[in-house]
Amino acid sequence: MDISVQIVFDAADPPSLAEFWMAALDYVPEPPPKGFDSWTDFGHHIGMPEEQFGDQASAIDPAGVRPRLYFQKVPEGKTAKNRVHIDVQVGRGLQGDEYTERVTAHVRKLEGLGATIAWQADDIRGSATVMRDPEGNEFCVC
């Protein structure tokens, strides 16, 4: 059986949130389906109303290893803590100053893109910076 995974984000502004996560994870925009020059062409082909263009966005790992990210417009805002979150693992396998420097640099990059620090976690499970993306979704940088 061939099973794949995609991560879906509910969003107020799918294209903007996709841009943030592409920068956070070194992803790229997903190209349109084969035979189409753009997502707009594809939207016209399937009969999508033009006012719905931009209600979704997708991003992929350029190496084709990590899951596809899909962003869909929803009318409601985020109202509670995430039950599932993403760990952005930039320091995996590193220790001490090297780990701290790598995590700190990525946290600063993400702050520059609109993320905010929620809190620092440092316990028996390890150390991480818990952040919120521009729409308030929590994630860890570790």
Brief overview, please?
The protein is of the alpha/beta class and 142 residues long.
Strand and helix map with partners:
Blueprint: E1 6-11, H1 14-25, E2 28-29, H2 39-46, E3 56-60, E4 68-73, E5 86-88, H3 96-112, E6 116-123, E7 126-132, E8 138-141
Parallel strand pairs: 1-4, 5-8
Antiparallel strand pairs: 2-3, 3-4, 6-7, 7-8
Written description of the protein model:
- This protein is α/β, with parallel strands linked by helices and 142 residues long.
- The chain has two domains: 6-73, no CATH class; 86-141, no CATH class.
- It is 26% helix and 29% strand.
- The chain contains three helices and eight strands, in the order βαβαβββαβββ.
- It has helices spanning 14-25, 39-46, 96-112, and strands at residues 6-11, 28-29, 56-60, 68-73, 86-88, 116-123, 126-132, 138-141.
- A four-stranded mixed β-sheet has the order 1-4-3-2, with helices on one face. It has a four-stranded mixed β-sheet with strand order 5-8-7-6, covered by helices on one side.
- Strand 6 (116-123) and strand 7 form a beta hairpin.
- It is globular.
Number of strands: 8
Strand content: 25-35%
Q: Ranges with pLDDT <50 over ≥5 residues?
A: none
Portion of residues in helices? 25-40%
Q: What is the count of helical runs? A: 3
**What is the general shape?**
globular
H-E order: EHEHEEEHEEE
Q: How far apart are the termini?
A: 32 Å
Average pLDDT works out at 91
Major beta sheet summary: 4 strands, mixed
Total domains: 2
Overall structural class, as computed from helix and strand content, comes to: alpha/beta
Radius of gyration from CA coordinates: 17 Å
Main sheet: strand order: 1-4-3-2
